């Protein structure tokens, strides 16, 4: 099984979303919020494509990687789910570390907020990331879809209608 940055991000947000995504039930293509996030990611730094590289590593695609300074750049629409963004970038740093790139760092950029956050991968983070991967494998291999989480946290999720259709 190939665990990608998307799996890590979903794991940190909602086990149900993770399980549905793994089982090819994808709702992002219907979400205006996801489309807005993609637009921001594509249009925020037009000069970036010339300087940085897209990188495919162990099945995960890193959109912008600066190989000279060893920096992973991740663009996000808002800092609302910041913990999942940090985990996603730590996972990319872990993949780089596993493939011999030591000392890489990450930079999460929030263009609309004009903020950035630096992400590192400390020694203790490596075992944490490995635990996330093991837990993700356990969740997605389960026969049962995990239950819904608190509805108030789900309103902006692309899976909201799927999870709560009978209640609306």
UniProtKB/TrEMBL annotation:
Domain DUF83: 4-164
Database matches in InterPro entries: CRISPR-assoc_prot_Cas4, Dna2/Cas4_DUF83, PDDEXK-like_dom_sf
Cofactor: how bound: Mg(2+) or Mn(2+) required for ssDNA cleavage activity.
EC class of the enzyme, as a word: hydrolase
Any one of the GO BP annotations: defense response to virus
Classification via Pfam families: Cas_Cas4 (PF01930)
EC number: 3.1.12.1
Cofactor annotation: Mg(2+); Mn(2+); iron-sulfur cluster
Presence of the UniProt keyword Manganese in the record: yes
A GO molecular function held by the record: iron-sulfur cluster binding
Keyword Amino-acid biosynthesis attached: no
Record keywords: Antiviral defense, Exonuclease, Hydrolase, Iron, Iron-sulfur, Manganese, Metal-binding, Nuclease
Highest taxon, organism lineage: Bacteria
Gene3D superfamilies: 3.90.320.10
Entry similarity comment: Belongs to the CRISPR-associated exonuclease Cas4 family.
Purpose: CRISPR (clustered regularly interspaced short palindromic repeat) is an adaptive immune system that provides protection against mobile genetic elements (viruses, transposable elements and conjugative plasmids). CRISPR clusters contain sequences complementary to antecedent mobile elements and target invading nucleic acids. CRISPR clusters are transcribed and processed into CRISPR RNA (crRNA).
Name listed for the protein in its UniProt record: CRISPR-associated exonuclease Cas4
Naturally occurring in which organism (per UniProt): Siphonobacter curvatus
């Amino acid at each position: 099984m190939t665990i990608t940055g998307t799996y890590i991000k979903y794991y940190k947000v909602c086990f149900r979303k993770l399980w549905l995504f793994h089982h090819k039930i994808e709702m992002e293509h219907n979400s205006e919020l996801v489309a807005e996030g993609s637009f921001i990611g594509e249009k925020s730094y037009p000069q970036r494509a010339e300087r940085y590289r897209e990188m495919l590593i162990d099945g995960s695609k890193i959109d912008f990687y600066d190989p000279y300074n060893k920096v992973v750049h991740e663009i996000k629409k808002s800092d609302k789910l910041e913990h999942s963004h940090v985990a996603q970038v730590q996972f990319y740093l872990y993949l780089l570390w596993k493939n011999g790139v030591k000392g890489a760092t990450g930079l999460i950029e929030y263009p609309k907020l004009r903020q950035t956050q630096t992400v590192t991968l400390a020694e203790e983070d490596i075992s944490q990331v490995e635990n996330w991967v093991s837990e993700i494998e356990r969740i997605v291999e389960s026969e049962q879809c995990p239950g819904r989480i608190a509805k108030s946290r789900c309103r902006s999720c692309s899976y909201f209608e799927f999870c709560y259709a009978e209640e609306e």
